[in-house]
Amino acid sequence: MEHIHLETKDLTYTYPYGTKDLKKVNIQIKKGEKIAIMGPNGAGKSTLFSHFNGLTEPTSGHVEIDGEKIIFERDELLKVRQKVGIVFQDPNDQLFAPTVKEDVAFGPMNLGLDYEEVEKRITESLEMVGMSGFEEKTPHHLSGGQQKRVAIAGIIAMRPDIMILDEPTAGLDPEGVDKVLDILNNLNEDGISIVISSHDIEMVNQFADKIFVLYNGEIIAQGDKHQIFSDKELLKKAHLKAPVTTEILYKLKENGLNVDTEKLSIEETVEEILKVKKIN
């Protein structure tokens, strides 16, 4: 049986003033999956993420990690946060120590690890995100992309089984996006389940195995990227743009060419066009 890492069961959260509520959200994340949660601003993505490691307590329903319900007691939450690491959208919400080294050390020290183990984790985590040599730098003097990578290193140092990243590539230049994606893919190859939220269709297209679409606090669709991105009506409703390859295939179809609009990568799209060209 496939191991379910994280599951929400009828997760509901009601704000006192009624915005960004969550309504009976049911999500399953299996071990080793790469998941994207997409939706417009205000759909409740950040609220949902804050439930995944017990930062927020649901109004009703619950979250299970490895089949165990999150219990809102200090020691239990510490265990949950060791398993589930969250990287916030704005690194400034996460980076607060005077040096990079102290920032990355914060999590492992909270786990009560000894000095040598903490040192080892700092070195390994910074190496994994390509930030070795920055130990003594001040986080606020780093570029946005570097800050993001340090924030990721701080979570890697906790050795979580699941990593949750809210808009991990927001505000980064193309090179920064590629670097973050490489880090996430490497972590995933090491067996870590990864959940991201993003507006960036092209990035999700490259990254995710499975997509959940959150709209007005409800999951209105789930499936692989071919299913989600080829559903024009759904994308329109959720204020999402189709990948450019999908747009091209739709245009060709409208012009009478019998192409498969579920193809996504540039390679697949070119192949599809050449195939149709041969037939004609």
What is the percent of helical residues?
40-55%
Which strand order spans the largest sheet, edge to edge or round the barrel?
6-7-8-3-9-10
Looking at how many chains there are and whether they match, the oligomeric state comes to single chain
Helix tally equals: 11
Count of spatially separate domains: 3
Structural key phrases:
280 residues; alpha/beta; Rossmann fold; 3 domains; six-stranded mixed beta sheet; four-stranded antiparallel beta sheet; 11 helices; 10 strands; 41% helix
Describe the structure.
The structure is a single chain. The protein is of the alpha/beta class and 280 residues long. It folds into three domains: 138 residues, P-loop containing nucleotide triphosphate hydrolases (Rossmann fold); 86 residues, Rossmann fold (3-Layer(aba) Sandwich), CATH 3.40.50.300; 38 residues, no CATH class. The protein has eleven helices and ten strands. It has a six-stranded mixed β-sheet with strand order 6-7-8-3-9-10, sandwiched between helices. A four-stranded antiparallel β-sheet has the order 2-1-4-5, with helices on one face. Helix 3 runs parallel beside helix 5. The longest helix is centred in the middle third of the chain and has 16 residues. The termini are far apart.
In short:
The chain is an alpha/beta fold. The chain has eleven helices and ten strands. The protein folds into three domains: 1-72 and 162-175 and 190-241, P-loop containing nucleotide triphosphate hydrolases (Rossmann fold, 3-Layer(aba) Sandwich), CATH 3.40.50; 75-160, Rossmann fold, CATH 3.40.50; 243-280, no CATH class.
